[in-house]
Every structure is written in C-alpha cells, then in structure tokens.
Design brief:
mainly alpha, 11 helices
Length: about 290
C-alpha cells in the first residue's frame, strides 16, 4: 500500500539538479527498488523476522533506531491526552448525569457537539494562532525551549497545548458515555434500594451507579487507541512534536519505506498490547471475571 502513490525514494532526489539519471538508477539498485514489488516485500519480511527492519533512506541509519527515538515523545503526548480526556470527560459526565438542571444539560450538549465535531488540525491551528502568535502564552511547538535548561516545568509547558487539543475529542465522547450510563442506571433496583436506605439521588448514583458505568469504559479505552494514535499524528504535525506521528508523516512524504513500515509495526504492536492489558484489567476491576 505504501507503494501506491506515484514516485519513490529515489524520485525525491530527482529535484536536485546534480542528480543524474544514472545516479538515481544506481540508488534504486542499491536499495533494491528496481526489483518487482513482490520480491521487495519478500525480502523485507525475511529481514523482519530476523530482527532487521531495514535502513532509513533519509537518515541513513537503522529504521528501528529512528522509530525508537520517537516512541518516548508520543507516549508522553498520548498519555497526557488520555489523562485530560478521562479527568475532564468523566468529571463533566458525572456532573451532567446527576444534575437535573436544564442549563447544565444544555451546556453539556454544546460541549459534546463542539468536541466531537471540531477536527484536531483546526483546533490546533486556532490554539497556536491565538495563544502562541497573539497572546504569547504557549510555545509554538517542540518538546522544550531551544537552548534552554531542560526541566519538568518547561516540558509540561510545551506539552499542555497539544495534550489539551488531542484530549478534547475524548472529553466530549467520554462525557456523553458517562452521562448516558448514569441516566440508564438511575432507575435500576440497586440504585433505588440505596435511595430507600436514605441516600439521596446524587450519592446513590456516585456510590453505586458510577462503578458499574466506569467498568465498560476500560473496553472503550482499549478500542480508542488506534484513533488516538491517528489523532496524535495530526497533532504532532501541527505542534511540531517529534513523535511517531510526525515521523510517519515525514516518512510518507519522503517515501522512506522502511521507516513507514516500522512506525506501522509499532502502532500495531501498541494496539495488541493495550487490548491485552484491557482484558487483564477486567479481571482486576470486576471480581466476577475469571480467566482459566
């Protein structure tokens, strides 16, 4: 699939006036790009099972090293975005679920529609335009101040804006999920029994209804990882965040096939690992679940 777009790694260098047709053909021969596609794929798979991910055409070093250098920044960004989504989404969802105020319900609907409708590339550009270009409150991008001392506060300052933009989509989604869950269990027998024992509606929902509502959220988190990674790619490009998403974008533009495939392998492994952790967490959070 990565070979479907026209052009290739060697064609990227064709724009250089000093690149002769003979030199470009020689590069294709060295990289094995002169072979049929099925031969290239067979060679790549054979090397892959031996632990060789190939060499980057751009950085001229092992693709696995190039990808490994970008995993840390992506983990920080996606972890912070998940934290924003969980804290704000669950908090607002609980507020909307236990409140009967029409004003609160209307505000929640507005936030949900905006959060799920506005794409991250647009919201990220607006955040940069307003808070970076005009107000000068946040940095324009990167993981730290160039030439400055590396410290926790500086790292958090650079992380705040992209994490909020990436997490905003999940705030809206999980807020609606928690709200709908609380509303659905409000009339269940165990909640009505708790209220009959003297608890008011809010305390009964928080103490007895919320744990049952949050349990399926573990599954939702596992299923949302691919979408989170795709959103991280856009956010990393907008905020010049040196993670896997930005690496994938740059590698696609440069037709750096080994790095493109390496990033996709890492993304696939991350999905499998998160799904496994999700299944194991069910046994921890729900005593009714037992694994043979």
């Amino acid at each position: 699939m990565v070979h479907l777009p026209k052009g290739g790694p060697a064609d990227v260098y064709a724009a250089d006036p000093s690149a002769t047709p003979e030199a470009i053909e020689r590069m294709k021969e060295i990289w094995g790009l002169d072979q049929p596609l099925h031969v290239q794929y067979g060679r790549w798979v054979t090397r892959l099972v031996q632990g060789d991910w190939g060499r980057s055409y751009v950085e001229r070093r092992e693709a696995i090293e190039v990808v490994a250098d970008r995993i840390g920044p992506t983990l920080r960004l996606t972890g912070a975005a998940l934290l924003v989504g969980l804290v704000a989404g669950v908090g607002l969802g609980v507020l909307a679920g236990v409140s009967r105020s029409p004003g609160v319900q209307h505000a929640v609907r507005v936030v949900a529609v905006l959060g799920m409708s506005v794409p991250t590339f647009w919201s990220g550009a607006i955040v940069l335009l307003v808070f970076s270009s005009y107000l000068r409150w946040i940095p324009a991008g990167g993981v730290g101040t160039i030439g400055g001392d590396a410290n926790l506060l500086d790292a958090l300052w650079h992380l705040a804006a992209p994490a909020l933009v990436l997490g905003s989509v999940y705030v809206a989604q999980w807020m609606r999920y928690v709200q709908a869950g609380l509303e659905s269990v409000a009339d269940d027998d165990y909640v009505r029994t708790a209220r009959a024992k003297g608890l008011n509606r809010t305390r009964a929902l928080l103490r007895h209804g919320l744990p049952n509502v949050l349990l399926p959220l573990v599954t939702v988190l596992g299923l949302e990882l691919p979408r989170l990674l795709s959103g991280a790619m856009v956010t990393e490009v907008v905020f010049s965040w040196p993670g896997i998403g930005r690496l994938l974008h740059g590698s696609l533009v440069a037709r750096d096939y080994p790095v493109v495939l390496g990033t996709l392998i890492v993304a696939g492994m991350a999905v499998l690992i998160v799904n496994l952790i999700t299944d194991l967490l069910y046994g921890v959070l729900d005593p009714r679940v037992r694994y043979a």
